[in-house]
Structure to design on (491 residues):
């Protein structure tokens, strides 16, 4: 069968089937039975063309899928540079369109070990050497956990430009160099023994500050320090020596802030230190020997101090025991003194009470004597009145006796008994007149005894005072006039 006959037959079949291909006789008919088709190569190619096209497109898509799409993990961030030269920073997890761009991947966090341990630093010793102020040498192991995803996109692009070729290894090398410089810069601030014994925290803080902020400026100054000698300290002698030494310290500005010599690359790129640790420190043999000798010396000094402290405690115990005995004796003496004071005070109070009672009794007796004295004065006044009355009556009787005598003399008839009575009255009245002129004593000694030395009963105090007062009153009575009896007797 010729080619022209095959084409004509194909066109006929297409036109009869009402296919949409119209009069395009070159389009194969897939619905034509095999008995009516021509098996020529052109016809077969035309029949398989859609399959070939679909396979080609699928193969092209598969081969170029890696250049069209890109996947970013959650723990990474990427920088994609498109064929046009523009950049895109991707920090979200998922698929995004790459468009035949080139992609660089960086981790968001990075753990770095600079250590002598194989499980940290690997096969090689990556610890950092440090030299202290006393020339002691140490080897420090470090661990740093960094966040290498800067907050600003410009910082991320700058980090990418600098480390696109070297990647994480370049960052590790940069951080190692900066950390090594910070450690070596901090070593001269202290001696190996100071770092080993007491200043590790200070060393850690200075190294971390320089790691995050930058390298500090250092200066050497001369200081006069008081050096305590171990022998004097062990034997409690208070001696000291002043020595001038050179010390390295951080240079400070006017605001007491550290002066920076160089900025930290971590700060320039926006990297943050999430964790920093000095995991271990080892020393060279010479420094280790020096530290061991210093430790032994310190331990011996501490032992000596402990012995001295123990002896001192014994002395203190003896002193305190003596103080306790003294306090006990003083307490007993104070107790006795207090008892004596209380007893004396009680006796004084009793004596005062007795004295007050005696004074009250004496005052009561004095009041009684005053009352008796008043009664005596009243009796004396009465006696004076009675005496004056008797004197007046005596004078009247004498006058009457004289008149009677005159009458008798004139009349010559006086009875003998009347004359005798008149004489007796005259003598009695003369005796009263004589007693009126007897002087009274100025001072009288009154005895409180019940009897005199000669057996005569003594005079009572009240009776004696009464008699004395009567004598004084009788002495004050006028006696210058002569009684009528005395005058008649003289005649």
């Amino acid at each position: 069968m010729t080619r022209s006959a095959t084409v004509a037959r194909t066109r006929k079949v297409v036109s009869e089937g009402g296919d949409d291909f119209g009069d395009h006789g070159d389009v194969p008919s897939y619905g034509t039975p095999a008995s009516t088709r021509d098996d020529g190569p052109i016809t077969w190619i035309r029949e398989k063309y859609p399959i070939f096209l679909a396979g080609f497109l699928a193969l092209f898509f598969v081969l170029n899928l890696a250049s069209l799409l890109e996947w970013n993990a959650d723990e990474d961030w990427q920088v994609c540079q498109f064929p046009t030269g523009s950049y895109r920073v991707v920090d979200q997890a998922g698929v995004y369109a790459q468009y035949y761009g080139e992609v660089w991947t960086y981790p968001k966090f990075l753990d770095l070990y600079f250590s002598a341990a194989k499980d940290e630093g690997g096969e090689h010793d990556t610890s950092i050497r440090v030299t202290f102020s006393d020339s002691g040498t140490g080897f420090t192991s470090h661990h740093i956990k960094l966040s290498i995803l800067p907050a600003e996109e410009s910082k991320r692009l700058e980090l990418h430009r600098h480390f696109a070729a070297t990647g994480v290894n370049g960052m590790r090398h940069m951080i190692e160099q900066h950390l090594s410089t910070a450690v070596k810069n901090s070593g001269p601030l202290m001696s190996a023994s100071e770092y080993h014994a007491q200043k590790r925290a200070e060393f850690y803080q200075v190294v971390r500050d320089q790691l995050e902020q930058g390298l500090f400026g250092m200066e050497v100054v001369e200081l006069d320090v008081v050096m305590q000698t171990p022998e004097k300290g062990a034997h409690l002698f208070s001696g000291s020596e002043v020595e001038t030494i050179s010390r390295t310290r951080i240079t400070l500005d006017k605001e007491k802030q550290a002066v920076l010599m160089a900025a930290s690359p971590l700060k320039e790129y926006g990297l943050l230190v999430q964790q920093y640790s000095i995991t271990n420190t080892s020393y060279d043999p010479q420094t280790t020997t020096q530290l061991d000798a210093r430790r032994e010396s310190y331990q011996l000094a501490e032992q000596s101090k402990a012995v001295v402290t123990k002896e001192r405690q014994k002395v203190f115990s003896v002193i305190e025991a003596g103080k306790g005995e003294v306090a006990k004796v003083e307490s007993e003496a104070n107790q006795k003194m207090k008892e004596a004071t209380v007893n004396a005070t009680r006796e004084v109070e009793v004596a005062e009470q007795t004295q007050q009672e005696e004074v009250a009794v004496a005052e009561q007796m004095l009041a009684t004597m005053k009352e008796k004295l008043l009664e005596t004065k009243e009796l004396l006044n009465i006696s004076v009145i009675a005496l004056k009355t008797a004197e007046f009556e005596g004078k009247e009787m004498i006058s009457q006796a004289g008149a009677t005598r005159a009458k008798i003399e004139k009349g010559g008839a006086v009875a003998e008994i009347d004359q005798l009575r008149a004489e007796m009255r005259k003598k009695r009245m003369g005796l009263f007149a004589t007693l009126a002129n007897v002087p009274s004593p100025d001072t009288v000694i009154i005895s409180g005894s019940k009897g005199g030395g000669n057996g005569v009963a003594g005079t009572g105090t009240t009776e004696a005072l009464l008699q004395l007062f009567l004598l004084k009153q009788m002495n004050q009575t006028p006696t210058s006039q002569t009684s009528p009896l005395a005058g008649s007797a003289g005649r």
